[in-house]
């Protein structure tokens, strides 16, 4: 099963994904894509570590390469998050095919596990941003749209509450 969990920054996506994962009886792998730049990045990383403490996740740091995620066909993988993966491929690696690369990595990861919960940002306001940031936002919107088509379930976080947009998900409630 592939669950895509979307929402704006600080909408509760990560917490919702962790709660869903905790209800699914399987080994849990946390695929961490964030490269913590500066004090804000480090604080965000620490917040996520505290949130998932005690939930039984095995964390794999994989900012640009999801093939580093060692999982079995019985495992649940929580990918945190698609937007970081894409940004890392574009801005850190300078990958000219970053969108396609991210999509193919996610599709390959999906084939290697029982459940993939992929978290991603939507609603990026790119007004006042430079050209590179606008290109990134457009690429993320396109990637999110393609992932939503591939996903069995799409959940959007709105005002801290999950809204089922596609499929059936017994772990929301």
Low-confidence stretches: none
Mean pLDDT equals: 92
Calculate the terminal CA-CA distance, rounded to whole Å: 18 Å
Rg over CA atoms, rounded to whole Å, is 15 Å
Number of strands: 7
Discrete helix count: 5
Categorize the overall geometry. Answer: globular
Helix amount: 40-55%
What proportion of the residues form beta strands (DSSP E)?
15-25%
Reported for the largest beta sheet, the result is: 7 strands, mixed
**What strand order characterises the main sheet?**
3-2-4-5-1-6-7
List keywords for this structure.
alpha/beta; 41% helix; single chain; 23% strand
Short précis:
This protein is α/β, with parallel strands linked by helices and 173 residues long. The protein has helices at 13-22, 38-52, 82-92, 98-112, 131-150, and strands at 2-7, 28-32, 57-61, 76-80, 115-121, 153-158, 161-166. The protein has five helices and seven strands, in the order βαβαββααβαββ.
């Amino acid at each position: 099963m592939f669950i895509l969990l979307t929402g704006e920054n600080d909408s509760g996506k990560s917490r919702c994904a962790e709660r869903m994962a905790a209800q699914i009886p399987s080994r849990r792998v946390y695929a961490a894509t964030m490269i913590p730049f500066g004090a804000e990045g480090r604080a965000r990383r620490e917040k996520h570590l505290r949130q998932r403490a005690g939930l039984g996740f095995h964390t794999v740091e994989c900012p640009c390469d999801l093939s580093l995620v060692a999982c079995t066909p019985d495992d649940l993988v929580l990918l945190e998050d698609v937007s970081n993966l894409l940004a890392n491929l574009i801005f850190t690696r300078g990958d000219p095919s970053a969108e396609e690369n991210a999509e193919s990595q996610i599709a390959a990861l999906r084939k290697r596990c029982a459940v993939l919960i992929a978290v991603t940002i939507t609603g990026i306001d790119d007004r006042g941003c430079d050209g590179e940031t606008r290109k990134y936002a457009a690429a993320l919107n396109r990637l999110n749209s393609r992932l939503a088509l591939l996903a069995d379930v799409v959940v959007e976080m709105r005002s801290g509450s999950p809204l089922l947009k596609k499929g059936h998900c017994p772990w929301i409630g």
